[in-house]
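Reviewers of the previous submission asked for a worked example of the structure-prediction workflow described in the proposal, so we include one complete record here. The input consisted solely of the amino acid sequence. No template or homolog information was supplied to the procedure at any stage.
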Amino acid sequence: MDTVGKLFRSRDIYDLPKTDALFASAMRETCSFCYRNCDDYKRILDRKGFAPEMIDSIEDLSDLPFIPTLYFKHHHLKSVPDRKVFISATSSGTSGTMSNIVFDLRSLLTGAWMVLNVGRYHKLWSVVPVNYIIFGYQPSKTNRTAISKTAYGFTFFAPAISRTFALEMTPSGYKLNWDRVLKAMEKAAHSKFPMRTIGFPAYTYFLLKDMKAKGIRYKMPKGSMITMGGGWKQFYTEQPDKQEFYRLVKEVLDIDEDHVVEFFGAVEHPILYTDCRCHHFHIPVYSRILIRDPDTMKPIGNGRIGLVNLMSPMVRSTPVLSIMTDDLGIIHDEPCPCGASSPWLEIIGRVGVSDIVTCAAGGDEYLRNGS
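From that input alone, the workflow returned the following structure tokens.
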């Protein structure tokens, strides 16, 4: 078995020390593949005087040249021929400059093992049918965004009785349909099967606030969950305190805090970070994270705020082994009451790069113009 496949079959998903050597080998394997098959990536590494065989241990990964997410918004890099591209995903919604990341079948199957193991650990898999409400885009042939694909993919964690999308495709484009979502909420409340939501946290929060203001309350069936992904992005200043948000969920939908789950990820780094019961994003064995000084770009270690550098060997069809985000974050080493042994990432905010338009920003116009 190749080292990448072996790494992503790891079921002890938060034991980083146990997989350090395997992770370094997997990074070297993917790096070598991309170096041989992507001329642009080869030039990037050559310009920095770096060769794949220089990855011998986990410590060597800090020397692996990173690529900013902004670069992928202006350059299309791929390490496989077009005939081997299985899925192409973009990072933004309906406007702005987009990253375009391609996935071959092998990379997708590798990721499937990760989803299987992460879902098992966090008890996301269920045989009980579910009514899904998706605070995001209804799938369409013209929408290639990663967030629309992952949100739809989430509905396979449990059998779907129904799928209701907040952003519906109409002849004139996407339109936010709060009324349809509220009707689906009411119907789900009277069902004997659980409800699950997935989508942008801001959409979830603003809808719940609106429901509270209008005196709308539902008691959702046992096992219902609120799950979110995509971050707050341009709504960061409106993000509530987490405890305030959990109280709102309980008050409006009668769903307890331990059934509120948030995800973190990026199209350029398609690793499934799932918060624990303490709502911390522990680093799984499928990735490593460095925090770098914004001025020097040197690693500054855990416990200090800096730019978030995400690394993973999962994707070989696009050279996204080491990407530099525009997120400011900090890695915490302190023990977590949930029992997961790995450090956890806290996103503090974003740097002011005006050229970067994100998937949630693409939905901004719908949210502000919705009814």
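Confidence is low (pLDDT under 50) at residues 353-371. We consider this example representative of the routine output the project will generate in years two and three.
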